[in-house]
Fold each of these.
Amino acid sequence: MKKLFNTLYVSTQGTYISKERENIVISLQNKELFRVPIHLINSVVCFGNIMCSPFLLGLCAENDVSVSYFTEYGKFIARMQSPISGNVLLRKQQYKYSEDKVFCLETAKSILLGKLNNSRTVINRALRDHKDKIFNSDKLKQVSDSLRRSIDNVFNASNIDILRGMEGDAASSYFSVFNELILNNKEKFFMSERNRRPPKDRVNCLLSFVYTLLAHDMSSALEGVGLDPQVGFLHKDRPGRPSLALDMMEEFRSVIADRLVLTLINLSQINYDGFSESSSGGVIMDDENRKIVIDAYRKRKEEEIFHPFLKETIHIGLLYHAQSLLFARHMRGDIDAYPPFIWK
């Protein structure tokens, strides 16, 4: 199995990333903050006003380390990477299947089944583990039942547009009870609805930021097995949009990202005052909160979990790679269908 390397996240505004021999060095106002050998890193992610030396970019390119740039909100700007490697025949097969309506429909069904099952499991686990703290358990049970019916209906969907409508309805239903899953600090952390670009409240800000981390890792995993993250099957293709990465991360949104955000809030690990509102009305985190979220996400990826299809225990951070491999095997015809990761 692939080794779990680290992603280097840089979010302190005004920092400078440079090269010293085979090391990545991070400095602020000419004071060194951190250094790490290049061979321990697989990607560098910069948020906001971060500067990289051309020699650092050259070092990263030579070692197949991608460098990605995002706004402070987490909106993707650009990505620098080494020349594309991998199996060109696999990518050609991917492009061919992306125009095959039957393949797209069946693949999208598998992806959506993963998302719906995992979203329902998050709700059911909350009902099981925190029933004494949940105020409106009946509402949660109703949404759980609604998601179960949606799972049954996925099998009967006749086209991709119906599936997209089902996905949208299920997401709306799921987020309608998200506040019920927030057990502490409810007066400070709450959401009226799911919104983004920019997020309008602290909870949406946290969700969007972790989704950005997840999308980056999913894109890297897909590229690592030779697939094109831009060409998807559930999400529509758009210039600059990593449609396949968005497809593949659907099954991980609730069990990785949402649960991480809920844990940070419920355990009072995130600072309520570490948010501000921009001139555009969006809510943004400060450096300290970003560091807390990134560190929690990194530690989460280092935890181990049993993969039901592979029947082995792996690091959570390798789930993206494992699912990308399974998708590539399906693309090659080695397995009959793509098996989404179902959290138990």
Note: Residues 101-129 form the longest helix (29 residues).
Amino acid sequence: MHTMIDKVASECVAVRLRMLNRIVTNIYDDALRTLDLKVSQMNILVAAAKMGTARPVDVCEHLHLDVSTLSRNVERMKARGWLEVVPDEDGRSQPFRLTPQGRKLLEKAIPCWSEAQQQVKKALGDGFARQLNQTLKRVNESTLTG
């Protein structure tokens, strides 16, 4: 039993990914702090910018978020004037888009994000980001094909 506990403590991929996620998230959040923006919110702004009119189900699927997490973030971002709801025939869906203020914020955030991106790539080592993208693509494809 003790050796299995040691094995889990020293090798668990889930724990290591969660630890790495917190470290990396902190680097981006620190870089974006002057804009009162978190990287999780920036990703939603980017998704909205790319989609034009963003449907929550599509954003959740794309960013691998649960609906309540997206909804909570979108509400905060609407309150700050970064996002607005787009009228829709299905009143439940609540599609949203960037406001002009949200687009300006995103433009200001890009240099901060770039700085954090370079810092993370340097910390993680050459090739890690490329390998991460390939792995995520492979995992996404395998979950789509079953």
Note: The domain at 2-112 is CATH 1.10.10.10 (Arc Repressor Mutant, subunit A).
